[in-house]
């Protein structure tokens, strides 16, 4: 599978997971966990190693925890 197809698949999976929180009123912790999982998955699909996967998880977790503060995921 080509890298662009892998990235598209990871984006679709990430959006699918994000859609699961629509009716549960997630907390910052819930969004951080979902973001970290999505960031880790994207790096895994891209074929990156452990350090890059952890960076993806950290960035995804931070983005998930802070997304409601900038009115992105309300």
TrEMBL record:
Secretion signal: which residues?
Answer: 1-18
UniProtKB keywords: Signal
User: What's the superkingdom here?
Assistant: Bacteria
Record's protein name: 17 kDa surface antigen
State whether keyword Signal applies.
yes
Q: Does the keyword Signal apply?
A: yes
Query: To which species is this protein native?
Result: Paracoccus albicereus
């Amino acid at each position: 599978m080509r890298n662009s197809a892998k990235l598209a698949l990871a984006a679709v999976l990430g959006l699918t997971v994000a859609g699961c929180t629509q009716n549960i009123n997630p907390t910052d912790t819930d969004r951080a966990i979902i973001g970290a999982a999505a960031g880790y998955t994207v790096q895994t699909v891209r074929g990156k190693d452990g350090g890059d996967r952890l960076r993806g998880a950290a960035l995804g977790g931070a983005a998930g925890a802070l997304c409601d503060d900038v009115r992105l995921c309300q």
